[in-house]
Design goal:
440 residues, mainly alpha, Growth Hormone, Chain: A, 2 domains, 18 helices, 82% helix, 0% strand, globular
């Protein structure tokens, strides 16, 4: 239910930005910070909150996250200032940063290994309902009731989620370590915030502008300092040995590529439906239903496959199908074929996203599940931000958006997916040959 709130909110707001800007008397570009601020806070804080959940208790931190998210949603619906709305969206993003990694870690904590994949699959299915309903709900509420209802609709779901969380049996008590690496928290938050902020604003400032390069420099320096600190402290925020686990790194990297590609696909599809096909917000939301339903169905599929197939093999197939579907989207002309191609693309790449989050939980110790989930989700959120920013940059300054113009980002995303699938296939073939030859 908590993940449902986050996904519903994430997919309802984009279509409402012009209406929000007009109502609050600001330029649409300024109102875009309501989206950027949320993503910035969510991406920057997931690692810290994921690890804090390991230390302080997954249920406790998840309950705080849902409460913060619901309260911020209610406040967002009542504001009359664009600046206050952006600030509250940052708070809402902080709530989401607690919900996502800690919620998944709580499932790892509660369910035994044999049932964990299935449980996570169903969780993603419920969250997928929010994804499926988001575009239509956002368009319909904006057009018929007003954008404030986009935030109000979160409140009852957050209240129900908070009540349910209190009833979850968990082993939060008796944790051996409660020492928090606060220098590590500060450094990783600054690093991720600066990097995501630079990527997010690159289309407005330019990739080589002083502000963008300055943010990237701050992020890089903070990241180097973070690695130095983590290698010396007794209780690090992130155990750096996590990045020496090749399977974890490969799964996370593939999920990042898949999430970046799906972000490109959805961003281009939104522009195509509204500026090329000239659909209304409600019409665009209806057109999104097939791809969104495909996204919703992939949670249970990922949960089932995680128990029966090698994650790397499934991820290779998912990115290959997703890359081929992106090529089909780039070359599509008729609206029905376009929507079907987007649906196939979203299904394949969402399978990669869901399987990544499930599989990475299986390769780490339960007491560090939140840490691993936070790192993985941060990487995937950052990948989506990079994909969206590159799409915006490539289309900036185009007087007229046509199918041909919009195909450029899709082709780049397709090459990335197909290349990733090829690398995974090569690695797997190398392992198979090593096994036959008797090598380790």
């Amino acid at each position: 239910m908590a993940l449902f709130c986050v996904q519903l909110d994430l997919f309802t707001l984009n279509l409402a930005v012009p209406s929000m800007a007009a109502d609050l008397h600001v330029a649409p570009a300024a109102m875009q910070w309501a989206v950027s601020g949320y993503l910035l806070a969510a991406g920057a804080l997931m690692i810290a909150f994921g690890r804090l959940g390991d230390l302080l208790g997954h249920r406790r931190v998840l309950l705080i996250g849902v409460t913060v998210f619901g309260a911020a949603s209610l406040a967002c619906a009542l504001v009359s200032s664009a600046g206050v709305l952006v600030a509250l969206r940052v708070v809402q993003g902080a709530g989401a940063a607690m919900i996502m990694p800690v919620g998944l870690a709580l499932l790892t904590d509660v369910f035994p290994a044999a049932q964990r994949g299935r449980a996570m699959g169903f969780a993603f299915a419920v969250a997928g309902v929010g994804t499926a309903a988001g575009p239509f709900v956002g368009g319909a509420l904006t057009e018929w009731a007003g954008w404030r209802w986009i935030f109000l609709i979160n409140v009852p779901f957050a209240m129900v989620a908070a009540l349910l969380i209190r009833k979850i049996p968990t082993s939060d008590r008796g944790r051996k370590q409660t020492v928090v690496d606060w220098p590590g928290v500060a450094l990783v938050t600054v690093a991720v915030a600066a990097l995501i902020g630079g990527v997010d604003r690159s289309h407005a400032w330019g990739w080589v502008s002083a502000r963008t390069l300055g943010l990237f420099a701050v992020g890089a320096l903070a990241l180097v300092a973070f690695v130095v600190v983590e290698s010396r402290v007794r209780h690090p925020l992130i155990n750096l040995s996590l990045f020496r686990d090749r399977k974890y790194v490969m799964i996370t990297s593939t999920g990042t590529v898949a999430n970046a590609a799906i972000a490109v696909c959805l961003a281009v599809a939104a522009l195509y439906l509204q500026q090329v096909r000239h659909l209304s917000p409600v019409g665009a939301g209806v057109a999104y239903l097939l791809p969104a339903i495909a996204i919703a169905l992939m949670g249970p599929v990922a949960g089932r496959l995680s128990r029966r197939r090698s994650p790397l093999r499934v991820l290779a197939a998912a990115t290959a199908i997703g890359g081929a579907a992106l090529l089909a989207v780039a070359s599509a002309h008729g609206l029905p074929f376009y929507i079907v191609a987007v649906g196939v693309c979203c299904a394949a790449l969402q399978l990669g996203y869901c399987l990544t989050t499930i599989a990475t939980q299986s390769v780490v110790r339960r007491e560090r599940a939140g840490e691993a989930s936070g790192v993985t989700l941060t990487a995937m959120v950052t990948g989506a931000g990079v994909g969206t920013a590159l799409t915006d940059s490539s289309l900036a300054g185009k007087a007229v958006l046509t199918s041909g113009v919009l195909s450029g980002p899709l082709l780049v995303a397709a090459v990335a997916c197909l290349g990733t699938a090829g690398v995974l296939a090569f690695v797997r073939s190398g392992r198979a040959k090593g096994a036959v030859a008797g090598t380790p």
